[in-house]
Write a structure and sequence with these properties.
Number of domains: 4
Largest sheet: 6 strands, mixed
Radius of gyration: 34 Å
Structural class: alpha+beta
CATH topology of the largest domain: Cytochrome Bc1 Complex, Chain A, domain 1
Strand content: 15-25%
CATH superfamily of the largest domain: Metalloenzyme, LuxS/M16 peptidase-like
């Protein structure tokens, strides 16, 4: 079926420019004027029923046959990712009986009169077709009507038919051409509904129910989305009367899906994928994204494909097959579909010839110039394209296919004449422009099926592209990317947001995705589940294991990790900008299709349990592990973030999947900082938002209740030091003025010249580390004084903390202390925000909490305006000794 679909695609490709309004050129003077043949042929009758069904009838009495075709705008391009393959499965199910016919009865009826029937699914349509003796034309109409409008989707028939489709899928995996093209689809058409195979995937096909298929039919099988074609020995009036009677009763219940051309993906190549297998040969496929069939460039691209590698006389075939004898076969063509297109190059060769062939092929394209095409080669290409179009009319089935394609996709029969005029006007200059625009190394995607045991390395092949076919991506990115400092916030589907923070100082990109949720999406029995999910999330995709992901990213100097917070969940990545085309698809699969391998979940559990035990071995880590449950009564802040060992061990893969499903459906904020292709990043972010986000998933930041018990004492035997945390409740970040003052106060207290360090360590020698900490969520926060000291000095340290609070209450800070604190804040800010990742994290984290992405800078600016008296009032309001909490860890 794949070969049939591909040929259908090639047929559609030959009519790429219908509907344009440019003046028609004169035909080539040294060639036959095919437009004469079109104008001399009698035009078909085209009409539309009241329900919107288009009907085309073409009388042709050459044979005592009638062909009936029903086209529906319902193919794999109309599917959602979770529906991948449903169009094709429906095509199978229409043969399993209808409301008026038992399974197999339709085929018996058609074949009993000497006819044939079939159906086909492509990206942009499904077609049902019947060919019968001319006196049985009504049976043909009745049959396609039953198939399209009355299919009986019996659950008992569906299950075995899914096994048939899965067997067909397996057979396709065994066919190198099919497997190769499937690999290229997701590389050339990422983020579109063309990236998955028409037949779907094993998991999607297996998951479909009868209700799923019925819902799909109800959505897309509308009369206004259909074309009925009847050709052969018929009477037009009789046919139209019967069609009106048989098809006029059906009503439209849904609007027609809007079809718009997909933008070309960002030029982030070259990207090469090598798939070893039990093959005897190397099968190579190269794809370049090109515009859709409605583009003004489509006809020229067809000519380019035909001219370069469209037959045994083409330059590529002559050079690499006939002269150099490096390949068994090589060809090129331009496949243009309703919304996307691909310039495709395929070759079959022996593994030992690959290195030489690859180098010479790259050199060939690096030096490619339209002037190398002779007049004869150009005219031959155009003649062959026109010839193939006319030869389809030899048979009634071919005639119906050709007429149907022009009517269904290009809006009318004038499209054929227009196409032939456009074909005639294509010249060498146009081909040169198309080569320069689309056949570029940064737009190249490649897939190879290689014999097992051969040493063929994708990275080496990519490096060869860069060496032999100079990259142009840097220049293009500079033209497309926003200038440094031109920050943009872009609304995404489902309420998500993209923030672009360009900085072209270095050719690196940092990417941060933040969701609200984290521990806040758990109940008390699930403490530690968010952390475990973060550890397991990046450990498997449908086509890569954890170690393969690690190796793949390491080979590209890239990194990616997920993390869970008290009320956020994040995914952060960093990579060289020139590897964006390699790593972004991997990140996308990590987030949209994690596989949660059981072994990797077990490893994640092992890591998390080890981390818990390690923290419990360290006094200070123990204190910070338990500080939140000590302070808060409820909500995510009261949880043990990593959970308890027994809890973690007991979590099931199903719990992880359920948590990720509800977590990932929240609207997110993605911030990207560094050098990047803005269009490519926006497309990536839009795909994630469309795939993940679901409406109605809102997160509310809580204001937790504080515990009434204010003293906690923990013990770790055989340790030397004691640790003291004195904690004061303070407002959250939603109070900007208080946050600015508290931030300034923390700076005044901490650091080696801060008040706490100076008085308790330098003057009194109470401990090695003495500092102040400030933690804030949107609706709550705390300031803590910390000291690590000898156990016998704990009381003295606590008294020192109390004196500090009293001092802050009694007198304003000296001006020099205040200025030092202000300078510390400014210095910390710029020191902490030097890296690209720190900036992307900051923007995403703040925005997802409903705060301004520049809030930290705003706090510093506001802090610069504060006076000593302001800090004294702040201390009096929030640093209340009698309200403080004390947490100690003793030997």
């Amino acid at each position: 079926m794949y070969r049939t679909i591909l040929l259908l695609g090639l047929l559609l490709m030959t009519s790429a420019c219908a509907g344009k309004t440019q003046p028609i050129s004169t035909p080539a003077q040294n060639g036959f004027d095919f437009t004469q043949a079109v104008s001399q042929a009698e035009a078909p009758m085209v009409t539309r029923l009241e329900n919107g069904l288009t009907v085309l009838v073409k009388e042709d009495d050459r044979f005592p046959l009638t062909t009936v075709r029903l086209y529906v705008h319902a193919g794999s391009a109309y599917e959602r990712p979770d529906q991948a393959g449903i169009s094709h499965l429906l095509e199978h199910m229409v043969f399993k009986g209808s409301a008026n016919r038992a399974p197999g009865e339709t085929a018996r009826m058609i074949e009993s009169v000497g006819g044939s029937l079939n159906a086909g699914t492509s990206w942009d349509y499904t077609v049902y077709y019947v060919e019968v003796p001319d006196q049985e034309w009504k049976l043909g109409l009745e049959t396609v009507r039953e198939m399209a409008f009355h299919a009986n989707i019996d659950p008992n028939e569906l299950e075995p038919e899914k096994e048939v489709v899965l067997a067909e899928l397996e057979r396709g995996e065994d066919a190198p051409g099919s497997k190769l093209f499937k690999a290229l689809q997701s590389m050339v058409w990422p983020g579109t509904s063309y990236e998955w195979p028409i037949i779907g995937y094993r998991d999607t096909v297996s998951s479909f129910t009868a209700e799923d298929i019925k819902e799909y039919i109800a959505q897309l099988y509308q009369p206004q989305s259909m074309l009925l074609v009847v050709t052969g020995k018929v009477d037009t009036e009789q046919v139209l009367d019967e069609v009106s009677r048989a098809f006029g009763e059906y009503k439209n219940t849904q609007s027609v899906p809007e079809v718009t051309a997909a933008p070309l993906p960002a030029p982030n190549g070259p990207q090469i994928q090598v798939v070893p297998g039990k093959w005897n040969k190397v099968y190579l496929g190269l794809g370049f994204p090109i515009p859709d069939l409605g583009s003004a460039q489509a006809t020229g691209l067809e000519v380019l494909g035909q001219a370069l590698g469209g037959g045994d006389t083409s330059p590529l075939y002559r050079t690499f097959k006939y002269q150099k004898r490096l390949v068994d076969d090589i060809s090129t063509y331009a496949l243009t579909l309703d919304r996307v297109g691909m310039f495709y190059i395929s070759a079959t060769l022996d593994a030992e010839n690959l290195d030489e062939f690859w180098t010479e092929l790259l050199d060939y394209f690096a030096e490619l110039d339209a002037s190398a095409l002779t007049d004869r080669e150009l005219e031959r290409a155009k003649l062959n394209l026109a010839d193939s179009l006319f030869l389809t009319k030899e048979t009634l089935s071919g005639l119906a296919s050709k007429l149907g394609a022009f009517q269904f996709f290009y809006g009318g029969q004038n499209a054929e004449a227009y196409y032939l005029h456009e074909l005639a006007r294509v010249d060498r200059a146009e081909l040169g422009e198309l080569m320069a625009e689309y056949l570029r190394p940064e737009r190249l995607s490649g897939a190879l099926l290689t014999p097992e045991g051969t040493e063929i390395n994708a990275r080496a092949m990519t490096n060869a592209v860069n060496a032999h076919w100079p990259r142009q991506i840097e220049q293009q990115a500079a033209e497309d990317a926003p200038k440094q400092g031109n920050v943009r916030e872009i609304a995404l589907p489902g309420g998500s947001t993209l923030v672009l923070l360009p900085d072209h100082t270095l050719p690196y990109t940092a990417l941060s995705l933040y969701w609200p949720g984290g521990d806040g999406s758990l109940d008390p029995t699930e403490q530690g589940l968010a952390t475990l999910t973060a550890k397991a999330l990046t450990r498997g995709t449908p086509d890569m294991t954890a170690t393969q992901i690690e190796d793949y990213l390491s080979d590209r100097a890239a990194s990616a990790a997920a993390m869970a917070g008290r009320d956020t969940f994040a995914f952060n990545a960093k990579y060289p900008a020139w590897f964006a085309g390699d790593v972004l698809p991997v990140f996308e699969k990590m987030l949209t299709a994690p596989t949660w391998p059981l072994k990797e979940i077990d490893r994640a559990k092992q890591d998390q349990v080890a981390s818990i035990k390690l923290r419990e071995d360290k006094p200070l880590a123990t204190a910070f592990r338990h500080i939140f449950p000590f302070l808060f009564q409820d909500g995510p802040y009261a949880f043990l973030h990593a959970g308890e060992v027994e809890q973690v061990d007991a979590f099931s893969p199903a719990q992880i999947e359920r948590f990720w499903e509800r977590q990932s459906q929240m609207p997110f904020v993605m911030a990207v900082c560094g050098t990047f292709d803005a269009k490519g990043i926006e497309a990536f972010a839009s795909r994630l938002a469309t795939e993940l986000t679901r409406p109605g998933n809102e997160y509310t930041y809580v204001r937790p209740a504080w515990n009434t018990e204010k003293v906690s004492e923990m013990h770790l035997p055989d340790r030397n030091q004691a640790h003291l945390l004195t904690i004061f409740p303070v407002p959250g970040t939603e109070n900007l003025e208080a946050s600015a003052g508290l931030t300034l106060l923390r700076a005044a207290l901490s650091g080696q010249s801060g008040l706490l360090f100076r008085d308790l360590r330098d003057k009194e020698g109470l401990g090695y580390t003495v500092t102040a900490l400030l933690w804030q969520a949107p609706k709550t926060g705390f300031m803590a004084f910390y000291i690590g000291t000898e156990p016998e000095k704990l009381q003295q340290a606590e008294e020192g903390f109390e004196r500090t609070v009293r001092m802050l209450h009694d007198a304003p800070l000296p001006n020099d202390e205040l200025e030092r604190a202000k300078n510390v804040l400014t210095g910390e800010y710029y020191q902490d925000h030097q890296t690209l990742l720190s900036r992307s994290r900051q923007a995403a984290n703040l925005l997802v909490q409903g705060l301004d992405r520049d809030m930290e800078k705003e706090l510093i600016d506001l802090a610069q305006t504060l006076k000593p008296s302001d800090l004294r009032e702040l201390a009096r309001k929030y640093l209340l000794w009698d309200e403080a909490y004390n947490l100690t860890v003793k030997p």
